[in-house]
Design brief:
Blueprint (H helix, E strand, L loop, with lengths): L15 H8 L4 E5 L5 E2 L14 E5 L3 E10 L14 E8 L4 E6 L12 E8 L5 E7 L2
Antiparallel strand pairs: 1-2, 1-3, 4-5, 4-7, 5-6, 7-8
The structure holds zinc ion (ZN).
Length: about 140
């Protein structure tokens, strides 16, 4: 593992469980124990009913591309310059929640909306594992 020079997540108290999950290579989302609503990103209260009775469940890791944007050529000088070309995407998980991530193992030209994807885990530091998504082939 080489040193990672890109921004890392700011882990909040109510999001810690998510990051502990990714470290175990599990994609966790919240579920309201009162109304059943699936919740992501990590919240303190259910956005549907306002309950604070939120638990964690393991997501399937499968979903599809809802929207995406690719950086194909020039990029502002940053730690990401060496990654060009790359694609960031909004992934809609089977559970119905959405999250932003990057698409891997797929050239930007081949990314399409509604493309089926599944999670892969990228251990970027000893403490942080980022969920990324690759096409289901
Ligand atoms: Zn609820």
């Amino acid at each position: 593992m080489t040193s990672y020079n890109k921004p890392l997540p700011n882990i909040t108290a109510h999001g810690r469980e998510f990051w502990e999950g990714t470290k175990r290579h599990e994609l966790l989302i919240q579920e309201c124990k009162d109304c059943g609503t699936k919740v992501f990103y990590p919240k303190i209260f259910c956005p549907q009913c306002g309950s604070s009775n939120l638990g964690w469940i393991k997501a399937s890791g499968k979903g599809s591309v809802y929207s995406y944007s690719s950086s194909l050529g020039k990029n502002a000088p940053s730690a990401f310059l060496g990654d060009v070309p790359y694609t960031i995407a909004i992934i809609r998980l089977e559970e119905g929640v959405q999250l932003m991530s990057t698409i891997v193992e797929c050239s930007p030209e081949d990314v399409k909306c509604d493309m089926d994807v599944e999670v892969v885990f990228d251990d970027v530091t000893e403490e942080i594992t980022l969920p990324r998504f690759k096409p289901v082939r």
